[in-house]
């Protein structure tokens, strides 16, 4: 079976805090510099969605 897509989630412990604006900034740099060995397309901020993914790095074959 050939892998078509995969997804990576970084889960935080309850009560943990992360600076989502900084994560979006970092991910945008990754897209601009194509720093991973896959095609990166865009960054989506989902912090407005309750229990959502918060930040999504969208790639051609993978989402992080």
Topology:
Elements: E1 6-7, H1 20-33, E2 40-46, E3 54-59, E4 62-63
Parallel strand pairs: 1-4
Antiparallel strand pairs: 2-3
Which geometry do the CA atoms define? globular
Low-pLDDT residue spans: none
Q: How would you name the oligomeric state of the polypeptide chains in this document?
A: single chain
The largest beta-sheet arranges its strands as: 1-4
| Number of distinct beta strands | 4
Note the main sheet.
2 strands, parallel
Q: Approximately how much beta-strand content do the residues carry?
A: 25-35%
What is the average per-residue confidence, as pLDDT, rounded to a whole number? 84
Name the structural class: alpha+beta
Distance between the termini: 22 Å
Structure explained in plain terms:
The protein contains 1 helix and 4 strands. The longest helix has 14 residues, at 20-33. By secondary structure, the chain is an alpha+beta fold. Helices cover 22% and strands 27% of the residues. Strand 2 (40-46) and strand 3 (54-59) form a beta hairpin. The protein is globular and about 35 Å long. The mean pLDDT is 84. A two-stranded parallel ribbon has the order 1-4. It has one helix at residues 20-33, and strands spanning 6-7, 40-46, 54-59, 62-63.
Keywords:
alpha+beta; two-stranded parallel sheet; two-stranded antiparallel ribbon; 1 helix; 4 strands; 27% strand
Outline:
The chain is an alpha+beta fold and 64 residues long.
